[in-house]
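S1.2 Input.
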Amino acid sequence: MKSRLVLTLVLVFSLQHQVQPDALIKTTDAGTKYVGVGYTMEFDNTEYTLAKFRGIPFAKPPTGNLRFAKPQAPVVGEQYDAREFKSVCMQPPKPLDACLIHQPIDEDCLYLNVYVPLPGWTASDVNDTAIDSHKVLADAMSSAKSLPDGASHAVFVYVYGGAWLEGNGNCYDGSVLAGLGEVIVVTFNYRLGLLGFATTEDDVIPGNAGLWDQVFALKWVKDNIEKFGGDVSKITVGGNSAGSMNILVHSLFQEDEQLFHRVLAMSGDASFNKVTSTVGYKSTLTAAKALGCSPQPSKQELKTCLLNLNQTDFVGLLPPSEMSFGLPFLPTLEAPLIPLHPSSVLSGSYDPSKMAVLSRFAKKDILTGIVSEDGEVMYQIWRILTQAPTNSTYITLDYIKTMIFQLLASRYDEDIDTYKYVIEAAVDRYLDWANINDDVKRSREAITIITDMCFVLPMISTLNTHIATQEALTLSPGGHRYVYRFKTPKTSLLYQTYVFSWFEGTHHDADIPYVFGGINQSEPEDVQLSKALMTYWTSFIKTGSPNPSTNSLNLPQWDQYTSTNKNILELKTTPEQTTHFAEDAVHFWWDYLPGVKQRLCSQGVRSTSVSLAVVFTLPLSLVSRFV
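S1.3 Output.
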């Protein structure tokens, strides 16, 4: 995973702000009192004063017999020392990761971090209480300055991505976003890999432990954020990649509508068919066999074997996937957390049989979008799963066809020939046949195909569901919808050097440093774009609209996405609105290809009729049906 490791290095290093802890700050409300650190930091020559509370337990350590179990409420005393980060969840180590190398990795990892803005405070307000930050808790609590009374900040809870295999909340520093936007930022850890997504599809190992961790963290925020100055009526949950897919799943199936009110989904949509697995038990058996367990155990024997393993045995585990183009460990279809496949709900239309789920979803404000070349991450995953030679970085025509097939297919035993006409139509639509032997051009065109299939069309399907449900139920008020496409000022030279030399554009995850203010401040264009993102994001977090009440940056108006205008904001150095987003891709996949199916069937081409009938069952949910 060398290429992703390099990108992670860039991301987390850029998010580590050099701040000097100056004081101790405490909460004062009833219940547990937390002591954190007051400090100042600077972004674009503006100083901000904040408090951060780190390493707060939101669940019991998932160790011993609690391994694989749903999270349970932690035992916390009347006072808690929240001055330092705690461990992140088990995942492969990254020796070159400038943040992760400083984070202990352990099963005992269910902790969260809270960044609180202190508007009106200055450096002197924290300097005048400066004390030894290593004082024992009792002395620290008695000496700490209290958070201000009466604050009521909107709250942003961020869920990291990482393909359900890696990632953590510690390496996303919320300081700049919290300070500039005057919102509370919360990050947290959840279980990953087999420890987070093992299942026997019954009560032996219930499954989806990592998703239950997320729900538990959200419940902690709802129950406790007021003592940090948070407004429980203004909670936004955001995430990137797998984190974005997770929060959309929660927006559908989490029955407690007060856990959060807005969704900020970046580069990942729950209507993408690879979000959940229907073979979770089989995947768990495959992983257990790789760890030395019996190849045919009973479910209880399987659990006993996995419980007896050392936590380090789970590090770096990457057994073969049981799904066509699937990751080894995914959320599984298990009630009550995921009773239905999300793509069957987010099909692009309103389904009366799913009214309870859809009505909750349609009431939520949504800000969602992609980066312009998001599909590159899928190609990297393919290379890892297929163990492609490291020297074969260009995307060949045969490989393009294979990737399209694996996105269409749902099982390994399907035959690529049954999708022949669909695949040929797709490569004919996207590739420049006059330059088909141009390796660079063909590879870039392949990224466009993957971006459309895996990111653009699933997102549009979800937006269409949001619109159709509001119209069917005549919801007033219904949730707002805002859509963007992000582009960096220039292609990353580091990415071209260490990943793909031919790549051009904006790679997956490239927007995260801009969202958190972790960019190179010596580059004026980067600073300008980062401030635009943080202003839009925090305005949405506060009000449900990304348009700021005071537009000091002279940002363009961002209009809602509707079924008629299909409006998006191009988030680049100079943002601008465009309309009729991705209509060419929508027409090809949702109008033209169903017509191909009809013509083939009318001509008696029966060898493709079965698979095509599946693919085109619901034209408006084409991609969510086969990707």
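S1.4 Remarks. Residues 439-473 form the longest helix (35 residues).
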